[in-house]
Amino acid sequence: MATIIEIEKLARELPDRERATLAASLLESLPAILSDEDEGIAEALRRDTDLDANPDRAISLEQLDSQIRGRRG
Question: Is the pTM of this model over 0.85?
Fold first, then answer.
């Protein structure tokens, strides 16, 4: 039987579309997770409340894309 490392290596060699299909299929096979151990939902709610109170802090999608491109080099 193949190890997880071997499976991951083979999966990484797949073309992007096939890798994405495999990833989606694997994610769909997992049970729903209802916990928020990393407090991600709480953080998202805090940020949403902050944006409601301070709409001038929001940025456009174009600004976000520009910031991401700037970080990539």
Answer: no
